[in-house]
Amino acid sequence: MKSNFPSTDASFHIALFFCSLGGGGAERVMLNLASGFIQRGIKVDLVLGKAWGPHLQKVPSGVRLVDLKVSGVLATVFALASYLRREQPYVLISAMHYANEIALWAKCIAKVPTRIVVTEHNILFHSLQHMTPTRKYLIPLFIKYFYPKADRIVTVSQKAAEELAQFTGLPVERIQSIYNPVINSELLEKARAPLEHPWFLPQEPPVILGVGKLEAQKDFPTLILAFAWVRKVRAARLAILGWGPDQPKLQALIQELGLEEDVALLGYVDNPYAYMARAAVFVLSSAWEGLPTVLIEAMAVGTPVVSTDCSSGPAEILDNGKYGWLTPVGDSTALAKAILAAIDSKHKEVDSSWLDQFSLETATKQYLDLCDIPNQLDKSTQLSF
Is 13-181+359-378 assigned to CATH 3.30.1490.20? Predict the structure, then answer.
């Protein structure tokens, strides 16, 4: 694809934009990307509609936090337009809805040369089914109107790119697929941190781990039902890290199945990697994904993984089952059998060259190439697996 980013010798300034900094994978991915830019000496602003969210304490050193102190679509549009007129970053990268639409709208109002890169971290068709009626109506309209105005459109998997092309009518060549910048030195270091939870002590039963927001997309009821089947076969425990609106429903299901002694909803934790590294198996039970960051993280720390073969991401990450077990979406029996196989079978070792495509270094280089920004990295920051 021919670039529409002009060459320049000016100092590069990149802004990342969210409405807020929630506790999900997309936010974690963008913070990793900010760290990759900082390592290359690029000025980075993290622009938030409102400086709120569980990940706020994880903003990398060197990133300037810009709090617009607004909420609501229109107020955020005008506040971001004011920021763009004042700062005029070379590129602004946005993620999620309505942040993508707000970024494009704000540029139209600000009339600045800043390039806008919008990123899609999910599969729209499935996501829309679980949104409020207002969002279900507005988001497709906004996407079809605003996305063609973007300088670049990025999805986190090839399958997501194909789906977005069908959804918008844009040619798939107009959409770039870049895997999430997941694996970095901080992740590997945190995986080695001490963990005091008694379930992870030596001689304790194996722990099955799930991580994600407690909502319909992650389909934790299927994981809990699968664990109930596993528990009939052998001693084991299930720990789920995350927060979200479905917690009361999940707690009720645990009680209904009589699993209170062996299943724990541990809430949001600052360092999930220490849990991942010590789990007997990591399970992704999602009904749909874009590119599930947690699956890559578990692979990176050497934990066997089981995943539903949902659209999209897991099959791409696991090389169609070469590096983990894939099961049908919503099939608790198949998921239980795969969990038992993962616990009792020889671990499927992951080639380091395969993991490299999910590294911070690789993703950062791809984003910089996309924006025609010179890619210079201190060799001491590069990872080896």
Answer: no
